[in-house]
Design brief:
Radius of gyration: 31 Å
Helix content: 25-40%
Largest sheet: 9 strands, mixed
Shape: elongated
Strand order of the largest sheet: 5-4-9-2-1-12-15-14-22
Distance between the termini: 36 Å
Number of helices: 16
Number of strands: 24
Length: about 550
Amino acid sequence: MKRLAALAVTLAFTAMAAAHRVSDLDISVAVNQDGSALVTQRWRVKVGSENTEWYIPVQNLGPMTIGELSVTDNGVPMESLGDRWDVDRSRSWKAGKCGMVRKRDGAELCWGLGETGIHNWEVTFVLTGLVQAYDDADAFNYMFVNPGMNDAPEHVKLTIGPAFDCPQWTYDNTRVWAFGFYGDINVKDGKVVAETSEEMDSRSKFIALVKFEKGMFQPAVYKGGPVQDLIDKALDGSSYGEEDPAEKWFLLGFALLFIGGIFIILYVAVASALGYKWKKSIFGRTKVDGWYRDIPLDGNLFAAEYLLAKGGRFGSTVQPQNIIGAFFLRWIMDGKLKVLPDPKSDKRVNLLFEAPSASMDDVEEDLFQWALSAAGDNKILEKNEFEKWSTKNYKKMTAWPDRAVARGETWFRDKGYFLTEGHCTTEGQQQACHLIEFRNFLKDFTLSGERASSEVGLWKDYLVFAQLFGIAEKVAKQFKKLYPAIYDEVAKSTGMDTDRFTYMVLWTNSMSTRSFGNAVAKAGNINGTGGHSSFGGGGGFSGGGFGGGGR
């Protein structure tokens, strides 16, 4: 037994001694005006007894070329064999030497491992055509570290900077994205800097996509076409934009506190708390009290969205996803969508699509048709289908609320409620105030000694507008509690019992929030202003390959 234990310990130490460990990889890229670049890799590796050489596949080069490899080991230059590297030679023969193995679509960079122990390798090579010219920008999407390496680096840092006199790289002229690892990428002090925050493994890769303003380079390689094609291909499957928006606002507020913004923040907070938060040019006053019990603005959701988006003194008072949920709820109330039980879960509902009415506004109909497209051939919108559609079609989805606001502005103009842009007539101000007064009523109607109208159609509109205001859950619960008979009648008019109707109201809110949130998350950082990398995505890259390390 003792002999077996001793043998196990010996084998364990032997395996540890045989393995290699890459603690750090620092990559510097100096880019020339013609788009070529000098790449310098600084490896810190504990070399084990396995294998004879270290190799890095660099493939998928297209019009690019790679050459001029040189390597130093702990500061001592290695002998360069150029393209005459022999992978079949012994470890002792390869020690102190480096070279390349040419492949059909690239090359392998190779050098000898030498003795076991700590090695600091500095590897340099030249890439021609890294930065390529597109019709509207210059850019590259390049894999600097491959997946599938036998010995993946524990930490990687990439720094890219100009090797010629040019305008300083800033977010005004340079945009960046990174894929395949957990970490971040940013433009700092005139350079692009990307770095891992977690240890890489065999699935990890290190891809950087950088876009430059046209005119900064004179690339020798002309790719042509819009650079957005390159960006879209790389972003497909990525998770850009998942940062918490609240964190960004916190950081902004934190910065404002230190630059004297505390007084502004206090003023805004106090004014908002007291209700003085509306633009006088639109509402005729900054505080809107009182109640209004009728449906405002002829029931036009776009007009209401315009007032909420443009009428706040301190910025928008609207959540864009609310109008999406409001339209879904209206379609259900009007019979354009039929609510079906989900056969897979008693806690979910599905929506069966009927044809939209001819009177539907084109902006509204676009939203309807998108949801119908998400539903597929069976025309039944099931769990997560619209959320997935919104993620894939994030540009359409994130632009839609702005179209809704613009349509609401047109409604005000057509009604003759505008004196000038953003300034309402006296009648227009009265109509605008009715919207806020109606919101006050929906928020507070339980305080009233009066009983609301028993008209079913009116209560349907109440709930639709409550969804627009973001208070549908509260209003539905109060409605059900105070007027159970009317609530039951409204539910039955849509073909549902009260419990399923209540769930449906909540579902339209959560579905629209998730759908729009997914689109925003996809669009977030879509403009390349730095931040976290995405582990997914990165398609369409140049260079790189698969594998590498000791062999």
